[in-house]
Amino acid sequence: MSQTTWDVYLSGEIHTDWRERITDGAAKAGLNIEFSSPVTNHASSDDCGVAILGGEEQAFWHDHKGAKVNAIRTRTLIDRADIVVVRFGDQYKQWNAAFDAGYAAAMGTSIITLHDPSLRHALKEVDGAAMATAETPEQVVGILNYVINGRLAASA
């Protein structure tokens, strides 16, 4: 199975280095994965709708345009994904990540959630839809390694 290129979508918080830790760990493990993600530049993500389609006086419509344009990317990439990793951070509420997890679940795409144990109760429904719940990016890499190669990293 390691010949197959897997498509993994990395959804969720944008303020820490978790994506880099997963992509670097996967590269070091020699995993054949193509990673994708939402636009992680906060200002670009917030303002893409009005930057492309024109300004809005009301914040609701500003946000609405941006959400719709971002949804084109998000839905397309989740539809293509074999696995969706959804990261929830402590500092901000990632409503978009919860939506991505729900969308992936509705599409029948395997989900790995990634969050601190302190968020278990708040995320119990999201974790319930996930195939695995990890606490560190390194655990996610271990899951990906096992799923792709069919063996534990220690026995590689």
Evaluate the radius of gyration.
16 Å
Structural class: alpha/beta
Overall body shape? globular
- For the record, the count of structural domains works out to 1
Which band does the percent of strand residues land in? 15-25%
What is CATH's topology name?
Rossmann fold
How helix-rich are the residues, as a percent range?
A: 40-55%
Strand order of the largest sheet: 2-1-3-4-5
In short, what is this structure?
By secondary structure, the chain is α/β, with parallel strands linked by helices. It has helices spanning 18-28, 42-53, 59-80, 95-107, 124-129, 137-149, and strands at 6-12, 33-36, 83-87, 110-114, 132-134. It starts with 5 loop residues before the first strand and ends in a 7-residue tail after the last helix.
Kindly describe this structure.
- This protein has 156 residues and is an alpha/beta fold.
- The chain has a single domain (6-134), classed as Rossmann fold (3-Layer(aba) Sandwich).
- Helices cover 49% and strands 15% of the residues.
- It contains 6 helices and 5 strands; from the N terminus they run E-H-E-H-H-E-H-E-H-E-H.
- The chain has helices at residues 18-28, 42-53, 59-80, 95-107, 124-129, 137-149; strands spanning 6-12, 33-36, 83-87, 110-114, 132-134.
- The chain has a 5-stranded parallel β-sheet, sandwiched between helices.
- Strand 3 (83-87), helix 4 and strand 4 form a beta-alpha-beta unit.
- Helix 1 (18-28) packs parallel to helix 6, helix 2 packs across helix 3 (59-80) and helix 3 (59-80) packs parallel to helix 4 (95-107).
- The chain is globular and about 55 Å long.
